[in-house]
Design a protein that fits this description.
This protein is an alpha/beta fold. Helix content is about 45%, strand content about 10%. Helix 8 links the parallel strand 4 and strand 5. Helix 4 packs parallel to helix 10. The longest helix has 20 residues. The protein starts with about 20 loop residues before the first helix and ends with a helix. The structure holds zinc ion. The site of zinc ion (ZN) has 5 residues, from loops. Zinc ion (ZN) binds next to loops.
Length: about 300
């Protein structure tokens, strides 16, 4: 089993606040400067300088369009090694809270003694503050999934991107009493401006090990098979309570998938914990409680 190194621990705990740009972005800036100087020194070679810059932009764009890439900065695609060794997994639930789906999700999680992380949209949290507080009150975690979940998020400049994330951060902290420590970009898409914004706001970017594509796939067995494929300690799974596709009988796909997924995890001896619990070097009280609840739910 491979596990990520401690270099994946939250940037929020890194002491170096003086170098906000990821190494690749810094190298890109140098590449631009070098191409510019080359074109000045040898004007006839300007097409080569333009091609060098275009190639660099293509790589940066690909890094932003590939949700699991680390080219644009730190990005959790798996839990840290200590959590994987404890056989922890993280179920992350995006785009809510949703008054038609989230309450039933909370009941299913309780019934299986599982804890989850809800990546909430700021505007949805403001529309359903009591539901947002209930998520936290029942031992789960609320984290930042932007303020409006704009499909243009990855096209925003640094100021608009910072405003979008900070607005959600303020609303979620105000509603739940806990400032989020993790951020997920809408659809996982981003650009090079994101990393410095997250560092300033003390947020760790999280993508996933596998996602269910449950906003578009309507067949629960299909979504479950995708999520359960080689499920192992350290996995981060992504599903949706908001924007959820509906099965043929009108049920949100997540509600049809969750019981089978949680039973499968338990059969493998895996414990579903929140991202803050998984980030602790020593198991926290909620992880211990989740393990006990999972054991009693299976007996
Ligand atoms: Zn989303």
């Amino acid at each position: 089993m491979t596990t990520p190194s401690d270099s994946l621990l939250p940037a929020a705990h890194a002491s170096d606040k003086t170098a906000p740009w990821p190494a690749y972005v810094t190298a890109s800036l140098a590449w631009h400067a070098g191409a510019g100087l080359f074109a000045i020194a040898a004007p006839a070679s300007w097409p080569w300088a333009v091609a060098a810059i275009a190639a660099n932009h293509a790589v940066l764009t690909a890094g932003g369009l590939w949700p699991r890439s680390r080219w644009l900065g730190s990005n959790w695609t798996r839990l840290p090694a200590h959590a994987a060794n404890r056989r922890e997994i993280a179920i992350t639930i995006d785009d809510g809270p949703d008054s038609a789906v989230t309450p039933a999700v909370l009941d299913l999680l309780d019934a299986h003694g599982a804890k989850a992380t809800f990546f909430c949209i700021g505007a949805e949290a403001r529309a359903h503050p009591a539901l947002c507080r209930e998520i936290v009150g029942r031992g789960h975690s609320v984290q930042n999934h932007s303020d409006r979940h704009s499909h243009r998020f990855s096209l925003l400049g640094p100021k608009a991107m910072a405003r979008e994330i900070a607005a959600a951060q303020a609303s979620l902290a105000d509603i739940t009493g806990e400032a989020p420590r993790f951020f997920r970009a809408p659809a996982g898409l981003r650009n090079p401006f994101l990393a410095p914004v997250l560092q300033r706001l003390d947020l760790q970017l999280v993508s996933w090990t596998r996602r269910g594509f449950d906003t578009v796939r309507r067949e629960p067995s299909d979504v479950l098979a995708r999520l359960a494929r080689s499920l192992a300690g350290g996995d981060i799974l992504t599903v949706h309570d908001g924007n959820a596709a509906r099965t043929k009988d009108g049920t949100a796909v997540l509600l049809a998938v969750l019981p089978g997924l949680l039973a499968h995890a338990r059969s493998l001896g895996l414990v579903a914990v929140t991202l803050p619990a998984a980030s602790l070097q020593q198991p926290g009280n909620d992880a211990v409680a989740a393990a006990k609840a999972a054991a009693s739910a299976s007996s």
